[in-house]
Structures are given as C-alpha cells and as structure tokens.
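User: ok so my PI wants both of these folded by tonight, can you help

Assistant: No problem, let's get them done. Here's the first:
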Amino acid sequence: MTVMGHPSFAAWSASRAGSGGFGGNITVVDKVPPEMLYLIDSHWYQFPPMNPLWHGILGLVIGVLGCISIIGNGMVVYIFLSTKPLRTPSNLLVVNLAMSDFLMMFTMSPPMVINCYYETWALGPFMCELYGMFGSLFGCGSIWTMTFIALDRYNVIVKGLSAKPLTHKTALLRIILIWLFCIVWTIAPMLGWNRYVPEGNMTACGTDYLNREWLHRSYILVYSGFVYFLPLLTIIYSYWFIVQAVAAHEKSMREQAKKMNVASLRSSEASATSAECKLAKIALMTIALWFFAWTPYLVTNFMGIFASANISPLSTIWCSLFAKANAVYNPIVYGISHPKYRQALQKKFPSLVCGSTGDDTTSAASGVTNVTTDDKAAA
C-alpha cells in the first residue's frame, strides 16, 4: 500500500498503459502528500511512477548500507578512542571522519527506508529540509576532514623536521573550524539561499538544482566551488608533493645502496617511512572513493541548473545512492589497511579480523616521517 491508499503495482501498471489507457496521466508526483506539493518542481510532472521494484531495491540497499556504515564507523570511533596508542592528534581527524560518516547514515538511512516503503516522501516538509541539510552537512564534513588529513600527511611527509607538529589543541581547533564552516554553508538553503526539496524519486531530499533563478543557481555554483573543487584541488596538490617526496626518498635509498654494494638500506626508520607512505596510499584511496561517490551528484546538480531535460527520477536514485555509499567505504579501508587499527580490532573483536595483523609498531596515522633524516642516516 502507498500513502495514497492504492496498491502500488496497480498505479504503476495504469501509468504503463499509455496516454490512451486509463490512468495514462498518472505521474511520479501523484503520490506526494498535498502539503509537499509546493516543493515539487514542474519538471517532475512529466514522468510516470517508477516501478515499485526500484523502490524495494533502493530501500533494501540503503538499509544494508546504513547498517554496515553505522556499525563500521561506530567501531572505528570506539577503537580509536579506547586504544591509548591510537589517541594521537592526527587520529582525531580520523575519528572526526568516522563520526561524520556515522551521522550521515544514521540520519539518512532510516528515513529513506521509510519513504521507499511508501514510495514517496511521507515525513512532511520540515523533515525534508532537515534531511537535505543533514546530508549536505555530513557530506561537507567528510570531505573537509579528508582535506585536513591530506594536509597533515603533506606536513609530515613533505616538510619532515621543518614541519610544525600537530597537537591535540590544533587538531580540535581544525575540527571545530570544519563544522562551523559546514554549518554555515548547509544552513543557508533553510534561510532562503536555495532550498531543500524532494529529488526525482521522491524518497530523498536535496538542494533545488532545477530552479533557474540566479539566486538558486548561484548557491549551487558557489557551494560546489568551496565544498567540491577547492578541497579536491587541495588534496591533489598535497598528494602530488607527497608522491614526489616519497619517490625522491626511494631513489636516494637505491642510489646509496648501490654505492655501498648492498641490496637494501631498509632500516627501522625506513620501515616507519613505509608505514607513513602506506597511510598516504590509504588516504588517497579513501579520497578517490569519495570522488567517485560525489561526482555523479555534482554532475546532476550542474545538469539541473544548466540543462534539466536529461534528468529522470531513476537517475537521481543512483546519484543519491552513490553519495550515501561513501559513508561505508572509510571503515572498510581503515579496517583492512591500518596496522594499529587491525591490532586493536583483533584484541577487542577477534572474530572480525581475517588473516594476520602483522607486527607493526608504528601508527600509520600518527607516526612522524622524516625523509630528510632518513637520507642523512643513509649517507
């Protein structure tokens, strides 16, 4: 049953009958409660109801992803905060990332499962605004946390001894700045600069990217600049120099080993360097997954403000799903690749660890790498 009180497959079958049959004018908007209609753009009135099977699949997938994300990110927060060697300034950023992803799916998954059951937004206009704001807020929080993680890796790996160490106070200040910045941007649509409206599948809410007024267009353009392109360019800049520093260090080590007629100069300090370089790869993988998750949503928003004709309700499902699935990746990446995290996980939840955790004594998220020092040692 739907919120309109009619069998969902019957409504969908009627719409498939075409304009010549009974119910041929039924649209995806017809199931929307009357109090929500002022938020619906006229663009969506041209589309028939979606096959209820899509709603079932979407509800199942988002429910499963929600459970994985909430449990996974909850475990990351618990393990990092309850394990003393992991309570480092750098790892506070990791905890903030996990908390942002946890809150993302905690606020996104249950409402979407409910709406997929009713096949439309059934929670009212105010909840639609809150849903859109929370999704934007925690998405923004995740990407800027990843940006600061990349900058911290740049500071540790590229600058070496000349770098100013990250302290707990500085890390907490950065986290506060991240959330203040994100709140300002994501509360703006609730104050009149753009707005949060139901998306084409009518089971989720997001920014209004179909309104052609420049007040609304300008928000999408400026927001994407500060919350997508600026962080992305900062991350690319950071990792470009990280890769260069690592490559230069490895080249120096090989040349010195050749001069000394030995196979390798790998020492305990070099092992620490390998741990740090490994974390750089982990963070780069996480950010790449974020890029693939949020780029389709960005493309949809840009298509909306410039050429909305190609956007269908079905396409908005995949954009929304890809974006929310980002909150699932991070605990998996850290659980597989973070040595100290795996060791702590094995102690607290041994049944969840597959394979050996190794004997890594350097926290890949907090140890300080100094390429210059290693080069001097090699010399």
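One down. Here's the second:
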Amino acid sequence: MRSGPLRDTASWALIALPVISGLWLAIGVGVLAALSPGYSHVSHFMSVLGAAGAPYAAWTNYAVFIPTELWVLGFLALLNARLPDRRLTRLSLILLATYAGLLMLAAGLPCDAGCNGGDDGQSAVHIAHMIAAAVAYPLALIGLFLLVLTLPQPSLLRRLALPSLAVGGGLFGAIIAVPEAQGLFQRLIEAWIYAQFIALGVHAALCLRPQ
C-alpha cells in the first residue's frame, strides 16, 4: 500500500517550518514592540528593536531574529531533498540560504540606535548591518523566482513566478521610496517572501517525492 503524500514527517515539516518561522518572527516582534514605548510598526524597521541601546536588543537579535532564520535553513534543507539536482536549483537554494545567513549576520551586527545613524555619523557595524539587510531581500526574491522555475512539473507557482517577483520588487522599492512607511513595507515584503515559502512547502509536500 502506498502512503499518502502527507504521511511522512518530512512532508509535514516542509509546511510547518516556514509557518513556524514566520510566526516566530511576527509574534516575537509583536511582543517586543509592545514592550518598547514609542515603537511604530509603520515607520520603524524591525531592526530598531535590536539596535544598540534598545531595551530588549539581545532578546530581539538572539531569541527572535536568529532562530527565525534557522527555521528557514531547516526548511531549505528539506526542500533540497525534494528537488532535482540541477545547477539552477542549487543556485536558487544558495541564494535563499544566503538571504537567511545575511539576516542572521545583521542580527549579530546590530544597527545604531534608531537604525538611521547618529549625529556623529554611522558606525561601521551599522553600515554592515544595513548592507546585509539590503542585499538579503533582493537575493530572496531572485532565489524564489529561480527556484519556482526549476519545479519539475507545471504548476500555478510557475505561472505566477514573474508577477510574484514584480510584487516583491515593488515592495522593496517602496521601502526606499517611502521612508516614513519603511517599517510597513518591510513587514509586507517579509510576508510576501513567507507566503512563497509556504506555497513551495505545500507544493513540495503534495507533489514532489524525495530524490
């Protein structure tokens, strides 16, 4: 008797890991933001909660941001076992793993207070933090676009690959173009990336078997 598509633990984990990661981030940021007077989900980056001098910086960086990306890396490892061993597949997974790694690096290199530099200029750590975060999002969007194109069978995900990339690119551009709402657009691009992670996990769990 053949087992159903969701009978094995790995299949469930493909769906659960991106969900857990997204909830870990959302709940963690939500709780710590509520404990931080004056924090705005619309105008402030999430990194402000982990910035130098923030009251819950260590909790934000080491209990929220880094574990969030560890869940992502676990998801990518499981996804790798379901995808064909092709050069483009490997490249896309490397880009997505780099996205997670850069955000972990950004957590370990917290930005200056407020994440916008002080009167004396920006510290080297702050600059490294901002570069890591700024590079991470485009890598995630490109990695997701390429990964969807490598799926071994036609699917809705492949048909929506280009529109998904365009939406993500628009959200990333809005972070730069609308600084007064940069926190909102950061959250929207994170949600967009996670929606694609979850869709990939569901597709892999239901349609792809281990290689």
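Residues 9-34 form the longest helix (26 residues). The helical segments are 9-34, 57-82, 87-108, 124-149, 156-159, 161-177, 182-207. Good luck tonight!
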